[in-house]
Amino acid sequence: xxxxxxxxxxxxxxxxxxxxxxxxxxxxxxxxxxxxxxxxxxxxxxxxxxxxxxxxxxxxxxxxxxxxxxxxxxxxxxxxxxxxxxxxxxxxxxxxxxxxxxxxxxxxxxxxxxxxxxxxxxxxxxxxxxxxxxxxxxxxxxxxxxxxxxxxxxxxxxxxxxxxxxxxxxxxxxxxxxxxxxxxxxxxxxxxxxxxxxxxxxxxxxxxxxxxxxxxxxxxxxxxxxxxxxxxxxxxxxxxxxxxxxxxxxxxxxxxxxxxxxxxxxxxxxxxxxxxxxxxxxxxxxxxxxxxxxxxxxxxxxxxxxxxxxxxxxxxxxxxxxxxxxxxxxxxxxxxxxxxxxxxxxxxxxxxx
Length: 353
Known about the structure:
Elements lengths: L1 H8 L9 H11 L5 E4 L5 E6 L2 E11 L4 E7 L4 E7 L11 E5 L5 E6 L23 E2 L5 H6 L7 E4 L4 E3 L3 E4 L2 H16 L6 E9 L7 H7 L6 E9 L18 E7 L2 E2 L2 H13 L4 E5 L7 H4 L8 E9 L6 E4 H17 L11
Parallel strand pairs: 3-12, 3-13, 13-17, 14-16
Antiparallel strand pairs: 1-2, 2-12, 4-5, 4-9, 5-8, 6-7, 6-9, 7-8, 10-11, 11-18, 14-15, 14-17, 17-18
Helix pairs in contact: 1-4, 4-8, 6-8
């Protein structure tokens, strides 16, 4: 699973530009799928039928990552850009990025900032808006940018490489939510579906960072009886004033209770808790209103779908360098696989069950 994560985060795939991630997933999973298709919004949907009758389970992890887009090329060769997804302007200065051109070339760049030697002439308290920033791709002028193949509307992503460090941890960009994608890929490839009761749809959704758009479209295509999203979530175990230490990096998979997009199904959540306890899978409950996931759309389809979320704790989400604990990643995979193999009937998830 670590190698899968390494491969996934090496593929640029900002919101709306998930094409290469989709190609990777289709190529890897097509021989294991009963059916596989890519819908009009770019969602990769894999159907896998179990060996026994049972409910229809929809799983989703989003394939997109936050990024930027080329907005304007200045005469001196510097590039103005717009955000795609949520960014904090305080942390993007002087970070390395990569621009994907229309012919598929990856052009390195850096978000420019003034030298510290110039700070005495500047307002040191000023946080510049992204609209005041620029990307330097090493060109001397606009014609040089054109020779690099860079055009307006080309997508931009962080260029941080994947690296394992410390005590079983990993740093890199795009863990939100390529880590969830790696979990789904691993479950699809390792679960013995001859023992599964029901049908499982694995969805690698698009444009989650722009309002859960892919999950909305995918949910309309699947008559799910139960659903689980797999996503990263913000650990609260560092020293900032608002951190309440309720979700720890290395504390195990987060089982969602609520966020701003979902109040998790009590029955689905409790089944996840029982499975984690029975199989000694490290886990923690998550109550964090500050985020939303694909589950926010999945649970609202048709007559309502009992839904929960498995969360991979992370630090520094949407930053050039995110950090996860690889033990938490494994715990997430283990609990999802346990749920897939333990489900029997849709009635166990009914509201009055």
